[in-house]
Amino acid sequence: MFPNINPKQMEKAMRQMGIKSEEIDASEVIIRLNSGSELVISNPSVQKVTMGGNESFQVSGEAVEHTPSGTISEEDIAIVAEKAGVSREEAKKALEEAKGDIAEAIIKASEK
């Protein structure tokens, strides 16, 4: 974090300022977005920082966004509608029939 500073000295200085940090052993972190999709962070490094009675979390790792099965995002509907040249309703129906598979939904919607 800071060059030429011993990690133990850094930890001691943080404790003196009332900042507590601990590593959380996690195998995966899932953040549910308002759009209905999820941000999945695999192989995460998670730090819990407590300062002034407030807790915050720092997460880093490999992030991938995906839509859970059964959930169709507005973004997916817009993509299918645009690529297949159909209405949003037709695009949504094609996505439902294709179980969320965008490529298959575009093909189905284009055939109609």
Describe this protein's structure:
The protein is of the alpha+beta class. Helix content is 37%, strand content 34%. The chain is built from four helices and four strands; from the N terminus they run αββββααα. The protein has helices at 7-16, 74-84, 88-97, 102-111, and strands spanning 19-24, 28-32, 38-51, 54-66. Strands 1, 2, 3 and 4 form a four-stranded antiparallel β-sheet that branches. α2 packs across α3 and α2 packs across α4. The protein starts with 6 loop residues before the first helix and ends with a helix. The model has no long low-confidence stretch (mean pLDDT 88).
Short account of what is shown:
It contains four helices and four strands. With 112 residues, the chain is of the alpha+beta class.
